[in-house]
From TrEMBL:
The keyword Oxidoreductase applies. It comes from Streptomyces cacaoi. InterPro entries: ADH-like_C (IPR013149), ADH_N_2 (IPR041694), ER (IPR020843), GroES-like_sf (IPR011032), MDR_fam (IPR045010), NAD(P)-bd_dom_sf (IPR036291). This is NADP-dependent oxidoreductase. The keyword Cytoplasm does not apply. One of its GO terms (molecular function) is oxidoreductase activity, acting on the CH-CH group of donors, NAD or NADP as acceptor. Pfam families: ADH_N_2, ADH_zinc_N. Keywords: Oxidoreductase. It comes from the Bacteria. Transmembrane segments: none annotated.
Length: 332
């Protein structure tokens, strides 16, 4: 079976030559373990950080070893109690066709309750990130004006809609194409949206939010964060969720250059990691699946076919080729 390996540490933008799809033996499960045939795998921005050899909150990928990440698959052999062939599981050994793992690291998921891809997105890690980041980290309150960057992506699209559903006074989003901007206002119910490539973010944000913002959900960093600081009302709160504009930058961005505004506006900028918010999981699943069933919360997915195209899917996601969650279909 095949698995993607990292073969070189990228400098700046990764290129296909930093990766190789290699054969490796399929391991039969021993006691307590399961063999899973992967059906879907996730490509996520945080994986870029794991390609660098630096200490971080997740260990770096090892060179010439299979990469890993979120995946959903079908159990094909089990030596673990409670897991049988045919069960579907969410687990952490993506980037490969077959995975053998300790069943304690797998969560059973139901294909009847939701499409399996949803467990990697709207009902999975990125959905929980949106939910926790907005309601817990940013202390969102009804009546807040909310700005979210990366707003047509997996996390951002959910943040904006959740804010709307919970009574935001105004929801503003930024994204990287006219088509995405249209999606935000026409499908997701944002009050205003702009293409950050059309002109300075600070000016576009000020036009979209003439009365200022109370919450900024940051997926991008740099110029976007600087613009949000400028547009913040007193006691504004930012969830620093991601800084994708910096992940491939060889030199750090000088922005934000206006941090002195934090003082007079009494702003709070808080970083987050989704894994700190697992206690919200039951409430999140209950509330969000009800919104999805009723059609109040929409979600998109961009599905790339075939494990051969997984690296292209990852690179495409970094460049904005996805709308909603970027997913790779590994098998049927
Ligand atoms: P997305 O689905 O949003 O995909 C990434 C998107 O980023 C692209 O589609 C692209 O959209 C946008 N983008 C790329 N480069 C730039 C740039 N220079 N400026 C502005 N936008 C850019 O990914 P996710 O929803 O999975 O993740 C969104 C953010 O959340 C990331 O920063 C990620 O690291 C972070 N994250 C953090 C977590 C945590 O626990 N802290 C957990 C999960 C995600 P466009 O066409 O609009 O440019």
């Amino acid at each position: 079976a095949r698995a993607w390996h990292l073969t070189a540490r990228p400098q700046g933008w990764p290129t296909p030559s930093d990766f190789a799809l290699r054969e490796q033996p399929v391991e039969a499960p021993t006691s307590g373990r399961i063999l899973v045939r992967n059906l879907l795998m996730s490509v996520d921005p945080y994986m870029r950080g794991r390609m660098d050899d630096v200490k971080s909150y997740v260990p770096p990928f090892q060179l010439d070893e299979p990469m890993d990440g979120g995946a959903v698959g079908e159990v094909v052999a089990s030596e673990a109690e409670g897991f049988a062939p045919g069960d579907h599981v969410l687990h952490g050994l993506g980037w490969r066709e077959y995975a053998t793992l300790d069943a304690r690291h797998a969560t059973k998921v139901s294909a009847d309750a939701a499409p399996l891809s949803a467990y990697l997105g709207v009902l999975g890690m990125t959905g929980l990130t949106a939910y926790a980041g907005l309601f817990e980290v940013a202390s969102f309150q009804e009546g807040d004006a909310v700005f979210v960057s990366g707003a047509a992506g997996a996390v951002g699209s959910q943040v904006g809609q959740m804010a709307r559903l919970k009574g935001a006074s105004r929801v503003i989003g930024s994204a990287g194409s006219a088509e995405k901007v249209r999606l935000l206002t026409e499908e997701y119910g944002f009050d205003a949206a702009f293409n950050y490539k059309d002109g300075p973010v600070a000016e576009q944000l000020r036009e979209a939010a003439p009365d200022g913002i109370d919450v900024y959900f940051d997926n991008v960093g740099g110029e976007h964060l600087e613009a949000a600081i400028r547009s913040f009302n007193v006691h504004g709160r930012a969830t620093i969720c991601g800084m994708i504009s910096q992940y491939n930058a060889e030199k750090p961005s000088p922005a934000p250059r206006n941090l002195a505004l934090l003082i007079g506006k009494r702003l709070r900028l808080q970083g987050m990691l989704v894994q700190d918010h697992r206690h919200l999981q039951p409430r999140f699943v209950e509330e969000v699946s009800a919104w999805v069933r009723s059609g109040e919360l929409k979600y998109d997915e961009t599905v790339v076919e075939g494990i051969d195209n997984a690296v292209d899917a990852f690179l495409g996601m970094l460049k904005g080729e996805n709308t909603g969650k970027m997913i790779v279909r590994v098998g049927d």
